[in-house]
Amino acid sequence: MSAALMQEPPAPVAGARRWLPRGTVYGTLLNFRGEFDLWAAKMAEPPYKAAPQAPVLYVKTANTFAPGGASIAVPGEVWVGPTLGLVIGNSESNLTPDQAGRPQAAMDTIVFGGVPVAGCVLLNDLSLPHTSYYRPAIRFRNRDGFLACGAQPVPAAAVDLAALHIEAWVNGALVQTVDLATLVRDAATLLADVNAFMTLQPGDVLLLGTDCLPDGSRPLARAGDAVELRAPGFAPLVNRLVEEGATS
What we know:
Blueprint lengths: L24 E5 L3 H11 L12 E5 L4 E3 L3 E4 L3 E2 L2 E7 L8 H4 L9 E3 L2 E11 L12 H4 L5 E3 L4 E2 L9 E6 L2 E7 L7 H9 L9 E3 L12 E2 L4 E5 L6 E7 L5
Parallel strand pairs: 1-13, 3-9, 4-16
Antiparallel strand pairs: 1-2, 5-14, 6-8, 6-13, 7-8, 8-9, 8-10, 11-12, 11-15, 15-16
């Protein structure tokens, strides 16, 4: 796709319903091998003095949810966070109206790590740049619109998580490719480890994590940029960033 075509997110189709999470959304930190290895030496330092033994989670609150095609207000540069979300439970409450009319066999769940997963969805977990991965303040991750959501979940049975690559594009330029084969905890392991200390409810979404670039940095975008996520089998997720206070 050319840069010119990327300048404007696609306009919503009249009457179309766009998917947003209907439960709690949990993000996962340090779940890609490259980033984990970069931080390994610091994990031995105070105050923790060891690598985390359980998944390190955070919550994306409902004010962060933004549908594909929406303009997202940013105060400056932001990190682009391409990720995949696992939508929990075989519940009609997870489905958009067009999915609800499909044969149920097409929406059957897959059980990963003892947890039923109804679907997978592309998500852009935006964040303000910050230095701590252990306890990032919610003001970095939980600003309005800072979780851009794909058009609708894809049935979990149709997604090969071990082979999936997610691409992030900014203004028509490829800025990152995320390889789910490099997860520290794959979907089944992550769900089992989370399920060991908390119960995920139908409609909840668990993010597999966001990755850094090889040098430890992350892709940056700013007001005026069009950000697109692509992955095989998923509709592209496109959003434009605008300045806070600007009229979209």
